[in-house]
Amino acid sequence: MAINFDNALGVHPQALALRERRSEVLAANLANADTPNYKARDLDFKSVLKQTTSAEKTMERRQAGHFAPPQQLLGAQLMYRNPNQVSLDGNTVESHVEQAKYAENAVQYQASLQFISNKFSGLMMALRGQ
C-alpha cells in the first residue's frame, strides 16, 4: 500500500510555500523603505491558499485544447498596501507595519513547519506499528 503524501500532509506544504513567498515580498518591502515612489506589496494569504486548494481539487485539463488551471502557488497575485500615512516621496512602505507583518508571517511559517513535522511523526508511528 503506497502512501499518498498529498493526502497525508494536507494543505500544509502549500501553506509553507505561500508563507515563504510572502516573506520574500515583505523583505523586499523592508529593503525598499527608502526608495522614492516604491509601493509596498503583499499577498492575501487566505484568498491565494483558497484559490490554490480549490483549483487543485476542482479543475482538470481533460483535452489538449483546454486551458490549464492557473498556477496560483508561485504566481500569486500581489496587491498594493494602502499606507496609514502617505510620505512625500510617494513611498508607501511603513517600516513598523512591515516588521510586524514579517514577524507574524515568521511565526505562522514556524507553525506550518510544526504541523508538517507532526504529520510525519504520525506517519512514522503508523509505519512502525506503534
Characterization of this structure:
By secondary structure, this protein is mainly α. The chain has one domain (11-59, 67-128). It is 56% helix and 3% strand. It has a two-stranded antiparallel ribbon with strand order 1-2. Helix 2 (12-31) runs antiparallel to helix 3. The longest helix is centred in the last third of the chain and has 34 residues, at 95-128. It is elongated, with a radius of gyration of 19 Å. It starts with a helix and ends with a helix. The model is unreliable at 69-74 (pLDDT under 50). Structural component of flagellum, the bacterial motility apparatus. Part of the rod structure of flagellar basal body. It is found in: Bacterial flagellum basal body. This is Flagellar basal body rod protein FlgB. It comes from Candidatus Methylobacter favarea.
Give the tally of structural domains.
1
Mean pLDDT: 81
State the share of residues found in helices, binned by percent: 55-70%
Total helices: the number is 4
Give the overall silhouette: elongated
Question: Main beta sheet, described?
Answer: 2 strands, antiparallel
Subunit structure: The basal body constitutes a major portion of the flagellar organelle and consists of a number of rings mounted on a central rod.
Protein name: Flagellar basal body rod protein FlgB
Pfam families: Flg_bb_rod
Keywords: Bacterial flagellum, Cell projection, Cilium, Flagellum
Summarize the structure.
Belongs to the flagella basal body rod proteins family. Residues 12-39 form the Flagellar basal body rod protein N-terminal domain. The protein has four helices and two strands, in the order ααβαβα.
